[in-house]
Backbone:
């Protein structure tokens, strides 16, 4: 089984998208099937196309990245786990950890 | 009734909204909650007298905030005169500008009259007319974020930032028009373009900047003395740059965003779009500081003396920097823009270099800069989706033209979101320890990196360029700083503005349309719409990230704009594999919205069956000369031939040419090429079409 996202078919992606939307409680069929100038909302086909495009580009690019550990000589994946722990607010963390003068 | 809202209407609308909420149980539930105590402005502030320009003496819509305070302090101006002058311009010109989606002018005039009863007692901002972006809660005044979702939402309390300004005596004249839910340039929720650039009021194709479009236009058009906006991806600095204003996006936590309709919790900032650095400092001084309702503001360094920082220092008759400051210049600062913008930036660097105390140095980006600031920009989308999920479940059409990026947020997994937070940690170390290792402030070529990190940015006007038939379109730069060093940014801006006068220039009054042209304008307004894909793209990146103006070409003809994608995965060199999105687009014979930048970037968007336009402004290079990798923009796709029809705009004999070359049967590399010296820079526009090739 290939793990290259580019091998996914449109039908496979559509199935994933519609399932995820259902799980989140979102009814795709509420979107129009033809352009709706009143609301400007995308059509169902536009939404699916945009989400397919997004799925094929962003997630894999993000989950392919790992922080590089500054030390070497052991399993790099293990060392990477110790590097760059998550910071939701990096600038605030600078202050809260005493790294900002003042 | 128009857009005027007086107090009686506020109250009736509040009652109606509450009644509606009781029936629908949706938005109005918030309105039924008890309003928490809004922390008012508390710290003492001293706003010094400033020299008042003759223009400000002659026209009460002209003064900066500091000038107006000086004039009122010396009884040469009343609050009523000041507010009335701006209200008069609203009544006269806002039908053209469309900067407001709600007006509170009657209440503003009443407040000004009240302020005049006790001159000098109303607070440091007494009588100053402001525009408040329509995503700030304003008690009793509809706050829509320009979305169907909040169309009847009447907040029960003021956002903290606005509450502090109001407590300081400032007077709201209206709610500023904005991109729906703070995403794009200002449009109606269905994507119809509204607010224009105050410098090109007759040409809605010129980017006014977004999403704080209305606040910027209102200040540039002298309908308010100053304004506040919000920024998640450039929405304060971009419209400031586009409309010749000085905009301050502070460090995350410096100002409260309690009572601001969220876009991305970790990246939403509140700040002023002002007429100069001093005004930005005054506004920020009032807005900044701890807010018990926003934990992000707590435990941070005290607010420095921003007003002193914004006061230029003159020694021995010469403007000097308050502190020695090293100014970093990134590698794409001059190469990522056209020749006319590059000339302005060169002049900026020259002016800064000539200020004693300033030192200008080149700095380098780390190798993974585009990945960290481009691809990882997507991480914010989950934050966008989460607070809005109830509305998405209710009816996704409520999001109008803006829906797509809200849907995208559902398709990043939790582990990918965590990876994004690790990337932020990685990036801030790169910025502070590597990029800014040898400088105090960093000139920016786009707002997104410092938005991701919550670092402060200050937009400053640096001159004007011509775009198409518009002879005078503002251009600006963005100065970025270290955490909680807004004072350093203001020091640099104050010195620069003391030796230049760009920030004092104001646009000419718009020509009021005749009845016939009003009808035409209505038609034009209908034709100028953003599509859902465009809205998603504008939300995903910031077009002016590299100083490139946004251009819509021709009413009803062009339906897709070029988007600059800040970063990407394509590496330099011919034959580089295209991202799947591009390949997918090519299979359908669709259009890829291409990226053009001085660095490798990734085409992102497919818009099948539509035409697209792009604005060329790359550095000139002969096709026969192999470009350096930093100027070669490689892409590849299969089964598609791109053909470009050069369109010459204000270029005389200068020709821009983009060459597409098939490298192999399965890939294509393209290089932006032009005959050396022939590309005039920004404003050269090309429209391309896409068709299936052999």
Residues:
């Amino acid at each position: 089984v290939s793990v290259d996202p580019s091998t996914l078919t449109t039908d496979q992606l559509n199935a994933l998208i519609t399932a995820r939307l259902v799980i989140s409680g979102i009814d795709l069929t509420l979107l129009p099937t033809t352009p709706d100038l009143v609301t400007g909302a995308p059509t169902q086909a536009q939404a699916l196309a945009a989400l397919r495009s997004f799925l094929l580009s962003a997630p894999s690019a993000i989950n392919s990245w790992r922080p590089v550990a500054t030390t070497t000589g052991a399993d790099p994946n293990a060392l990477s786990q110790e590097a760059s722990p998550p910071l939701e607010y990096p600038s605030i963390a600078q202050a809260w950890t005493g790294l900002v003068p003042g | 009734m128009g857009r005027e809202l007086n107090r009686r209407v506020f109250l009736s609308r509040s009652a109606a909204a509450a009644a509606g909420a009781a029936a629908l149980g949706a938005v109005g539930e918030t309105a039924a909650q008890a309003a928490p105590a809004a922390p008012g402005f508390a710290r003492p502030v001293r706003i010094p007298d400033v020299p008042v320009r003759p223009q400000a003496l002659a026209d009460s819509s002209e003064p900066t905030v500091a000038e107006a305070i000086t004039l009122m302090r010396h009884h040469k101006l009343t609050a009523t005169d000041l507010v009335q002058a701006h209200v008069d311009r609203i009544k006269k010109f806002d039908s053209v500008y469309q900067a407001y989606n709600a007006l509170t002018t009657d209440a503003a005039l009443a407040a000004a009259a009240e302020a005049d009863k006790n001159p000098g007692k109303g607070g440091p901002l007494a009588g100053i007319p402001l525009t408040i972006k329509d995503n700030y809660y304003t008690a009793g005044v509809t706050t829509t974020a320009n979305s169907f979702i909040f169309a009847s939402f009447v907040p029960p309390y003021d956002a903290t930032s606005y509450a502090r300004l109001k407590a300081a005596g400032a007077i709201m004249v209206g709610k500023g028009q904005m991109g729906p839910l703070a995403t794009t340039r200002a449009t109606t929720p269905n994507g119809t373009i509204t607010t224009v650039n105050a410098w090109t009021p007759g040409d809605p194709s010129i980017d006014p900047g977004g999403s704080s479009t209305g606040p910027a236009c209102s200040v540039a058009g002298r309908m308010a003395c100053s304004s506040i906006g919000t920024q998640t991806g450039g929405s304060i600095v971009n419209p400031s740059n586009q409309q010749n204003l000085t905009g301050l996006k502070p460090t995350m936590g410096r100002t409260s965003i309690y009572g601001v309709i969220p876009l991305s919790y970790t990246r939403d900032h509140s700040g002023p779009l002002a007429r100069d650095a001093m005004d930005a400092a005054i506004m920020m001084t009032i807005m900044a500081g701890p807010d018990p309702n926003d934990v992000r503001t707590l435990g941070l360094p005290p607010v420095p003396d921003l007003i002193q920082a914004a006061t230029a220092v003159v020694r021995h008759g010469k403007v000097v920097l308050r502190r020695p400051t090293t100014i970093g210049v990134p590698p794409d600062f001059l190469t990522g823009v056209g020749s006319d913008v590059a000339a302005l930036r060169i002049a900026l660097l020259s002016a800064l270099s000539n200020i004693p105390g300033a030192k200008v140095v080149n700095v380098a980006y780390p190798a993974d800069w585009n990945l960290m600031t481009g691809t990882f920009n997507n991480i914010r989308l989950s934050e966008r989706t989460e607070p809005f999920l109830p509305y998405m479940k209710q009816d996704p059409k409520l999001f109008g033209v803006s829906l797509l990026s809200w849907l995208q947020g559902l398709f990043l997994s939790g582990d990918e979101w965590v990876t994004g937070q690790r990337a932020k940690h990685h990036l801030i170390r790169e910025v502070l320890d590597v990029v800014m290792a040898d400088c105090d402030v960093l000139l920016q070529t786009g707002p997104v990196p410092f938005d991701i990190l919550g670092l402060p940015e200050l937009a400053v006007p640096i001159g004007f360029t011509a775009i198409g038939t518009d002879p005078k379109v503002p251009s600006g730069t963005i100065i970025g700083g270290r955490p909680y060093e807004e004072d350093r940014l203001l020091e640099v801006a104050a010195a620069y503005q003391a030796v230049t006068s760009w920030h004092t220039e104001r646009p000419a009054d718009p020509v009021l349309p005749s009845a016939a042209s009003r009808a035409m304008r209505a038609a034009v307004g209908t034709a100028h719409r953003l599509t859902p894909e465009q809205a998603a793209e504008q939300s995903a990146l910031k077009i002016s990230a590299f100083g490139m103006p946004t251009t819509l070409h021709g009413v009803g003809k062009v339906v897709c704009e070029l988007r600059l994608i800040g970063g990407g995965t394509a590496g330099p060199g011919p034959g580089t594999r295209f991202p799947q999105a591009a390949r997918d687009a090519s299979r359908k014979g669709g259009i890829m919205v291409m990226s053009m930048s001085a660095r490798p970037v990734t085409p992102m968007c497919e818009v099948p069956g539509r035409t697209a336009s792009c604005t060329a402004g790359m550095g000139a290079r002969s096709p026969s000369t192999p470009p350096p990798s930093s100027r070669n923009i490689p892409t590849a796709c299969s089964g598609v031939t791109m053909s470009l029809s050069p369109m010459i705009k204000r270029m005389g004999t200068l020709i821009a040419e983009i060459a597409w070359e098939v490298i192999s049967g399965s890939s294509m590399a393209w290089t932006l090429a032009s005959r050396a010296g022939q590309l005039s820079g920004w404003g050269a526009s090309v429209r391309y079409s896409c068709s299936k090739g052999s």
